[in-house]
Amino acid sequence: MAQFTYKARKRSGELVQGILDVADRSTALLQIERMGLFPIMVDGGRAGSAAAGPKTGERAGASSNLMPAVIRGFLQRKRRPKLRELATFTQQLANLLNSGMPLTVALNSMTHLESKGIPSEVSRQLKQDVMEGKSLSDSMGRQDHIFGDMYINMIRAGEQSGALVDVLRRLANHYERFAEVQSKFTSAMVYPAFVATVGVVIIIFFMSYMLPKFMSIFDGMNVPLPMTTLMLKHASEWFSSYWWTLILAAIAIGVIFVRFKASTTGRRKVDQWKMSLPVFGKVVRLNLFGQFARTLSTLLHNGVPVLTALKITEEIVPNAIVKEAIAQTREDVTDGKTIAQPLARSKIFPQLMIDLLKIGEETGDVPGALGNIADTYESELTIALQVMTNLIEPVLIIVMALGVGFLLFSILSAMFAITSSIGST
To answer: Is 223 a residue whose pLDDT tops 80?
Structure first.
């Protein structure tokens, strides 16, 4: 037997310390969890490690048998999980803990649950780390390709407050909301993208295949062709001979744009341009404001310090202009100022957000105020997406109609000219 000193928290958040006489660290952790505590630190037990020696070979043999699964899990973990996948994983873990399962048992069950996008090896490694005495947040920090800074800091706050289940549920709700907004944005762009692609394919097919056949007929008639038909003929001849230049031009423009956007100045210019577009810009701004408010509200509501919450929010927001405003706000908050004042000076955030945030600061409920702001802008975003979709659809239809109409008019006017020439002879 060996002695292990431990620190743990009750569900109420109270810190508990003690000493256990058990065979090994795993048994110590299980005993702590049976007492209804969340282990934070387990130390000691050097004598117990010798007693556990005979199991080392079994563990090594088991790990060697798991090598193919580990390799597969590593290959699958190359991509970050989608927001909805992370929300599902978080909700499943919250449900297991809420049912009364100890953390290690819940993580073991997670290895058998279907969690799309997050391999079972992730839960298996989390369980192993927790069994070795690490906290859940530290264990997740070792897998930052799955769990981001926001996730890890909120879990750490939940461990410190003893409200891990509530934090997990808030996290799941947070990612579910973001996934819903992302889905709305994607759905709004599917139809316009489909219509534009079909239009381009039709024009390319007509210019490269159908038009040359018509032109061969017109050339054999020796009839003067209308100006529009001649323009179309020259365009078709150029396209048939130099179509590859369009591909090269598209590649060159793409490379130049990517290199420009990769620079600090370029990225700032592109982000500023996206925010200032007539219709699309409003959608971008509403999405950014809602994302900022929702993220900061979730972090503050779960006990993450203000400066840490602002830093995480700055890293999550994908716009350089808003990032700069948040960074400046963080510096001003360090000097003892409120959040609303530096946000107002940035001239980026709307006055409505500033006013609601000021009310939250006056009433002492900044997370609640930010939550209301997020709800407001997410609702406006839904309306703005619908308006944008309703505007894009007729514009695309008109552009396609003009393009196809010009093609038909050029062909039909040539046919009329030929018919008139035959009739006059």
So the answer is: no
* Cα–Cα distance, 390 to 14 (Å, whole number): 55
**Under the phi-then-psi rule, with left for phi > 0, alpha for psi from -120 to 50, and beta for the rest, what region is 303?**
left
Identity of residue 62? A
Class of residue 402 by CB neighbours under 10 A (exposed 0-12, middle 13-18, buried 19+): exposed
| Residues in a beta bridge with 42 | 6
Residue 20 in 3-state DSSP?
A: strand
For the chain, the structural domain boundaries read 1-55, 178-425
3-state secondary structure of 41: strand
Average pLDDT rounded to a whole number, residues 148-169: 83
Q: How confident is the model at residue 355 (pLDDT cuts 50, 70, 90)?
A: very high
Give the max Cα distance, the chain: 116
Query: How far is the C-alpha of 29 from the C-alpha of 8, rounded, in Å?
Result: 10
* Residue 312 CB neighbours (<10 A): 22
With beta carbons less than 8 A apart as the criterion, state whether 42 and 6 touch.
Answer: yes
- pLDDT tens for each residue of 254-302: 999 999 988 888 999 999 999 998 888 898 899 899 889 988 988 888 7
Query: Is CATH 1.10.3720.10 the classification given to domain 178-425?
Result: no
- Model pLDDT, residue 53: 41
pLDDT value of residue 60: 41
pLDDT score recorded for residue 55: 41
Nearest CA among 162, 168, 172, 73 for reference residue 122: 73
- CB of 396 within 8 A of CB of 195? yes
Determine what percent of the chain falls in helix, strand and coil, rounding each to the nearest 5: 75, 5, 20
The C-alpha atoms of residue 292 and residue 350 are separated, in whole angstroms, by 13
Number of neighbours of residue 127 by Cβ within 10 angstroms:
21
